[in-house]
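Thread title: Can someone regenerate the structure for this chain?

I was given the following input by a collaborator and told the matching structure tokens would be attached. They weren't. Posting the sequence so someone can regenerate them.
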Amino acid sequence: MNPGDLFKKAKEEGRTLLLEDETKEVLEAAGIPTTRCYRVATPEEAIKKAAEIGYPVVLKIASPKILHKSDTGGVALNLSTKEEVAGAFERLLATGRRYDSGAGVVLQKMARPGRELIAGITADRHFGPVIMLGLGGIFTEILQDTVYRLLPIADRDAQEMIASLKSYPLLTGYRGQEPVDLHALRQVLKKLSGLVEAYPEIKELDLNPLAGYAAGVMVLDARLILE
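Best answer:
Regenerated them for you:
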């Protein structure tokens, strides 16, 4: 389903928040790599899908009424056996339905650790859409290392954003640390810009975390809100 159809479907259902699997489908359509999500309706279906994509896996609550899944205990990481998957499914479904009777569960591949970044789009009431990039993980609030640019952006703008981060030396492989693929990171920023240009009804889009590797980047979690 293309982004326009997904947005139309959400609006017809009376919601402005896209679920994670829908948001990742939008990002994939824009050429941004993600840990794709799969809806699973039963423990047996979750076990089957885990076997198909390979262990370890992650399970998450899927609900338009739950913005921050981790705050409600809605994420189960690094599940390596069918017993762990079945148990996590039952637990997450019960947790989700305390907040939303229609809550479901999604499953995705557990990604290997990378440099945690955050990126996203917000709509400023004075200037219009703004793109953001920052250091993610536990450092987000401590260092407050983020940069912003007005949209649209080109390759030079994307590179300037990256180089403006206080943590930029970490991204280049400081003291033997694995560097981040800066070309791939620039591509993500430019594709986010193009996505919002194509679909101005996007009010907010968060990629958090966005994992950076020596070869490529990967969106591990994402949220999209429509006007």
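The longest strand covers residues 202-212.
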